Amino acid sequence: MPEDHFGEQVAAGYDESTETMPVEPTVDFLAELAGDGAALELGIGTGRIALPLSERGVPVHGIDLSAAMLAQLRAKPGADRIVLTEGDFADTRLDRTFRLSYLVFNTIMNLTSQDAQVACFRTMAAHLEPGGCFVIEVMVPDLQRLPPGETVRPFQLDAEHLGFDSYDVAGQGMASHHFFRQPDGSWQRSSIPFRYVWPAELDLMAALAGLRLRERWSDWQRSPFTSDSRQHISVWELS
Ligand SMILES: C[S@@+](CC[C@H](N)C(=O)[O-])C[C@H]1O[C@@H](n2cnc3c(N)ncnc32)[C@H](O)[C@@H]1O
Q: What percent of the chain has pLDDT over 90?
């Protein structure tokens, strides 16, 4: 099992740290694709997306390796409608198929090797019913903003929170480092490793798994994906 970077402390503060993120456009998009079928969320976390999606009448199943994140989800109203499996979404096999499988909020990057990302696509393809789709929301690697020779980019600088991304360009790796100010004035550090991944590389992983690109947008409202897009929403379907 991969290392769990979403332990008790992260899980306890997760909802507060994501409370300003819009949820409705994501849920609208996913509900439309699920139609009258069921959906599988990889890295379901505390149910930020899964709970409102299941409120729309979509049966949702979720996989996550963090017991602490799943405990937060299980404590919420409506969680009893969601079937949960604790495991690694790169290779956890469930005994059923889905109309839709989705992986939002850069979570594909939590798989820190190409092999694991490829395995994830293969696992997902095996879980799709005919005509089913796999959706990923992920950032476009920010390398255009990394000056030559530099390896660190700040993304948050305020009195309570300092955040830096560090890059290992040769290994296509990055890590996000957070420093949170504590009530006693000290700073607490946490670092999460990622593997950044290009849209074309994801398409190749999809092709290896028997999927083909159906749509690519720069946001959940279906704005066009362009050279300036900082993230993409991609939809692959069984070919
Ligand atoms: C950034 S959070 C996203 C949670 C939720 N999808 C959301 O949008 O709020 C990433 C989640 O993926 C889970 N995760 C990361 N790597 C995983 C893996 N290999 N297998 C299963 N879950 C994983 C983490 O435990 C965490 O709950």
A: 97
| Angle (nearest 5°) at CA 66 between 59 and 126 | 50
109 lines ligand 1 (CB under 6 A): no
34 lines ligand 1 (CB under 6 A): no
Does 189 score more than 90 pLDDT?
Answer: yes
| Torsion sign (Cα): 107, 109, 113, 114 | positive
Cα–ligand 1 centroid distance for 64 (angstroms): 6
- 51 contact partners, CB below 8 Å, separation of at least 6: 73, 76, 78, 79, 82
Tokens found for residue 29: 């998009």
Q: In this structure, which amino acid lies at residue 44?
A: I
Centre of ligand 1 from the C-alpha of residue 88, in Å: 9
Q: Where are the alpha helices (DSSP H) in 77-134?
A: 114-126
pLDDT, tens only, 90-124: 999 999 999 999 999 999 999 999 999 999 999 99
Please indicate, yes or no, whether the overall pTM of this predicted structure exceeds 0.85: yes
